[in-house]
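In this supplementary section we document a worked example of the pipeline. Step one takes a protein sequence of length 310 as its only input; no multiple sequence alignment statistics are reported here. Step two produces a three-dimensional model, which step three serialises into structure tokens for compact storage. The input and output of this example are shown verbatim.
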Amino acid sequence: MDQLLQTNQRRQFKRLGLFVGLALLAASLWTIARSGTLASQAWQHLRHASPLLFAALLGCVAVITLCTTLCMLVLTNRTRPPIRVQFREMLALICASTLGNFVPLQPGLIGRIAFHHQVHGIAVAISVLIAIQSTALTGIAALWIGAGLLLTNAAHLSWIAAAFSPIVLVPFLRTTTARQFAAAFFVRVLETCAWGLRIHIAFQLIGQPIDAPAALALACVANAANTIPFIGNGIGVREWSVGFLAPLIAGVPLADALAAELLGRVAEIIFFIPAGLAAWPMLHKRLRTHISTRVVDSNTFVYANEMLQK
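The serialised model returned by step three reads:
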């Protein structure tokens, strides 16, 4: 009964989060529409933009996904007893769960935890801890780059310097655990830089180019918004976080900043719909194969199976 109540509470929070996110998205579109000339200029730039920039935007989404996969792989495979999740399987889980987070009442994280529990025998508590560690590393990476921007007066922090700045930590990595977490942290820093490049390209597409430090600062903001619970993929919150701070950080009007972030959201959807749909059959087959060779807890299997079928 307690478990049922907790599930119902999660669903209620998910509904509320979805409602808030969609309301914020609607407000973003309304703000852009009423901006008049700004919206027209952004649309004109978008229509005449190079196809290579659109391809680069999708490429950034792909790189971000690969970085998320690598981080989760490092954190998962360091558990005891040793777990060896394959890269292909983790990539499929990330794609499927990210797409699932766009859908009401289908929490991708819980489906991923259930899958790991059944297929790899990872305790639910351990999976939750890994998720917390992953989120914490995202926040630490954002703080790390933010500190770098402050220490270098922003203008002197380049993409390469930001991406490889964690190298300064190498002399302090004297234990296996420290090296494992440092590897995951390094991947998160690379991911934040990829976010910055994605934001840089999106702003350029709408005719509001910004420099690398501004893009990196907004990337830190966007990543922080993504970690808010019960609002899948930071829907709505991320757009407004970037929109409010872009005028201060990059001198870009609110409406243009919202348009740029919405463009990035569209790129996400374009990428994850085919990627997530392609991942589900593979994960379903993996789950079925495992079930046929091992007796497992039926309730958890049913839940994981439902997550993969929806």
